[in-house]
Amino acid sequence: MNILFLLAPLAMLMAGVSLLAFLWTFKAGQYDDPEGDAVRILYDHLDDGPPGSPPSDEP
Fold it and tell me: Domains in the chain: how many in total?
């Protein structure tokens, strides 16, 4: 029973840290372009990398 006095505040602390991390990523704009990856996967030329990079050996 005494372990609950340790685990309950620890769980609340971890939940608070997780919420702060989520809010930080949200404020940083990491969720601004949800359609970008869905459209970007359709373009094969984007897999080649930037111009001047060595070609990949993948088929």
Answer: 1
